[in-house]
Amino acid sequence: MFDESVSKKIHVPLVLSMFIGLLTILINFFYSVEDIRSEVYSSQSKELRAAYVNGLREKKVIALTNVINLSSNYSIIESLKSQDRNVAIAGLQTLSRKFKEQTIYKNIKVHLHDANLRSFLRTWDVEKYGEELAGFRKTLRDVKKNKKAIATIELGRAGLLVRGIAPIENDGVYLGSVEFMQGFNSIVKNLRKNREYETAFLMKEDYLSVATALSSSPKIKEFVLAVKEKNVDKDFLNSLKGVEIEDTKNFQISDEYFLVSEPIKDFSNVIVGYALIGEKTSMVETVIAKAKSSLLKQVYIIFFIDIIILIYLIIIVRKKIIRPIVDMEKMAQELSL
């Protein structure tokens, strides 16, 4: 009886404390699961934003690099210098063919402007020229004033475009400027191919008076699609009807997609539209499940180690404490007889 009494007084608190410790670990696990979800959502939203920002930065670098090279093109300089459009037409046709054969750019758009900021040559519409541009092309006025190449987003009849614009000078004389234009379709394609992300570029409906080429594009709330519809996943496009397009601070979850919104700002830093970047919610949930599984494995390991420690302590306590006490009690009883 004495053996059992001592054993209970030592073992029960030991087991109880171990049980409380394990219970604390389990409670912490469930709280940690929610923390994991929040951390994954945060990290995934940052990755989506970074992917878009990097894609846009790459676009601007390409625009700037190409337009700087074009500003040194002999045909362009001689054409503006002599005011002979045919020289530039022939030179740019050759250049366009080389781009098509040797690069991913199959249909480059180059626009030349004369020193008075009038349209001199459009490669996609050579018969249209002479238009006065100074009144509504702030970028051209900036390039003429500062004599420095720029890469920016600017609205036009075709919608939202990344434009590289560089000054053209000859012996210190300002001859005009050259413009290299790109759309956003390649960003949509590259993010899908490289990251399995879906992307849609939306322009504010208010600008349709300028971007007349987008008048028949799909509309979502107060916005219109600013890239080719065939390049955007239909399910992703439909999912945008249920999200806050102008919410650029928080991530959002639709029926099928986890997504974020990034503002599209023009040369004057005015928001002209939004880029929506997303991935399947199933992909995000997979990341969360893997993190939870890893955490659960840690809980199992801790539980297993705690059980081993408990068993070890019980054996040690029994051998080193309980048994000597019981032996001493028996000895005391024998001496008292």
Could you explain how this protein is built, in words?
There is one protein chain. By secondary structure, the protein is of the alpha+beta class. The protein has helices at residues 2-71, 74-82, 85-102, 138-146, 185-195, 234-239, 281-336; strands at 109-114, 119-122, 150-156, 159-170, 173-182, 198-204, 219-220, 223-225, 252-253, 257-265, 271-280. A hairpin with a 2-residue loop joins strand 4 (159-170) and strand 5.
Please provide a brief summary of the model.
With 337 residues, this protein is α+β, with helices and mostly antiparallel strands.
Under CATH, the topology of the domain at 60-182 is which? Beta-Lactamase
**What's the CATH class of the domain at 60-182, please?**
Alpha Beta
Per CATH, the architecture of the domain at 60-182 is 2-Layer Sandwich
Strand arrangement within the widest β-sheet reads 7-8-6-11-10-9
Number of helices: 7
Uncertain regions spanning at least 5 consecutive residues: none
CATH superfamily (homologous) name of the domain at 60-182: PAS domain
Rg on CA atoms, Å: 35 Å
Give the CA-based shape. elongated
Helix residue percentage: 40-55%
Q: Which structural category do the helix and sheet elements fall into?
A: alpha+beta
Distance between the termini: 19 Å
Mean pLDDT: 85
- Give the strand tally: 11
Keywords:
337 residues; 11 strands; alpha+beta; elongated; single chain; 7 helices; 5-stranded antiparallel beta sheet; Beta-Lactamase
Q: Helices and strands in order, then pairings?
A:
Layout: H1 2-71, H2 74-82, H3 85-102, E1 109-114, E2 119-122, H4 138-146, E3 150-156, E4 159-170, E5 173-182, H5 185-195, E6 198-204, E7 219-220, E8 223-225, H6 234-239, E9 252-253, E10 257-265, E11 271-280, H7 281-336
Antiparallel strand pairs: 1-2, 1-5, 3-4, 4-5, 6-8, 6-11, 7-8, 9-10, 10-11
